[in-house]
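batch job 7 of whatever, protein = Cytochrome b5 heme-binding domain-containing protein
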Amino acid sequence: MAPNGQDVGYLGNGDPRKRILQSISSEELKKHNKPGDLWISIEGKVYDVTEWLANHPGGENALLSLAGQDVTDVFLAFHSGTAWSLLPQFQIGILTDYEISPIQADYRKLLTDLKRASFYKNPVHVYGQYAAVMIPMFIICILGVIYSPSFWVHVGCGILLGLFWIQAGFMGHDIGHSGMFKTGVDKYLKLLIGCFTGIGMQWWRNNHNAHHYSCNSVEYDPDIQYIPIFAITPKFFASLYSHFYNRTMEFDSAARFLVSYQHYTFYIVMALARINLYAQTLIVAFTKKMDFSTRAWELAGLAFYWSWFSLIISLLPNNYHRVAFVLAAFATTGIQHVQFVLNHFSSPIYDGRPQSKTWFENQVRGSLNISSSPWTDWFHGGLNFQIDHHLFPTLPRHNLRKVSPFVQPLCEKYNLPYESVSWWEANLRVLRTLKAAAMEARDMSRPAPSLSKSLIWEAANARG
C-alpha cells in the first residue's frame, strides 16, 4: 500500500525497492492536493508525501500550497543535496507528461552554475564580522541603561537596541534559510537568536517559508494579509479566505475605516509592528503542533528574552524613561519592517494557489530590489536584492550582489521586469499603493473591482 492507502504493486516478496511504479498524468496528480491525500512531482517522479506533511522541516503550508503539482523548481531552490536521499521512500509513480519550459531550463542551469561556482559556500568569518558590529551595540545599550541617569542617553540606548534587533533578525533570517554551519549547531543558533530578539524561529519558519512559496498570492501569502490594518488590493474587500491562517479575512466596517486611512497610519504601524511579532511568536509557541523538546526549547528561549528585557526596563529610573526607551527601540526596528514591506507591497499580486511551473516569473514579478551602495548591504541584510533572494533563497546574503548580473540578463531574455529603485522611490510606491486602495475603500457604494480594472494595479505598476 502507498502511504495514503492506495494500492501499489510489488515484485518478489514485497520489497519496496522493487515496487511497480504507476504511470500518472498531471491531471491525476492535481486531484491529490489536500491533507490526507497529498502528492507532488519532482523531476518527473511522483511522490506521496501525505505522511511527511507533519514532519516537513519547512512547515505544512509549504507542501499544502503546492500540492498536486510538479514542484521541481521550488524543491531545487530550497533543498540541499541531503533532501534527495529522503525521496525514494515516497515515490509511487512516474509523471507521464512531464515537461520543462525554456525559462525553467535556464533557471535550473543558472542555479546549478552558481552552486558549482561556490556561491553557496557560507564562510563563517562573514558572520563573525556581523557579530563584531552587533555585540558592541548590545553591550553599550546595557551599560548606558545601568550607569547613565540621562533621558537622552536612554533614548540612544533604545535606538542601539533596535539596531541590534535588526541585525540579529537578519542573522536569524540567514541561519533559517541557509544555515551557518549546516549542522545541528544551526538549531541552537536559531534558539540563541530568539533569546535576544524575542522572535521564535518556529513562527518564522511557518510564516516566512509560506511567504516564499506563495509570493504575493492574495489567498496564500501571509506577508500581504494584513486585514483589518492594511489592504494593498481591493481584492481583500471581498473578505477573502486565507489559506495560511485558515480563516476568512473579514472586511467589515472597522476594517474599511482603518484601510481608508492606511496611507496615513503606515509608518505609525511600522514603528509598533514588533508588538505583532511578539504576539504571533507566543501564539505559535503555545498553540501550534510541535514535538515536546522543540516547544520546550522555544519557550525557554522566550522566557530568557522576557527576563532580561524586563530587567533592563526595570533598571531605568522612571516610567518616562521606560516608555521612551521601549518606543525608541521599537521605532528603530520599524525601519526593518518598512524594508520588508517595500520589497513586495507595490509589486503585482495574483489570485489563487501558487503555481510551481511559473516559479521564476512569480518571484521576479512579486519582488522589488532597492538600489543601494555596497557598504549598505549589511544594513539592508541583503534584502535590497529581494528578487535575487527570492530566486535563490538559500544563497548567503553576501553573495546576492554578485549574482545579480547573472539574473538580470535572464529576466531580459523573457521580458520580465528586474526592478530596482531607490529607497525613497520604493517608499513612494508603497504609499501610492496604499492610498489607491484607501480611496476605493472609502467608496461604500462601489463593489470590489476586478484586479485587472483596479486602481491598485495601476499603482503597483506606476512610474515616476
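notes: The chain has 19 helices and eleven strands.
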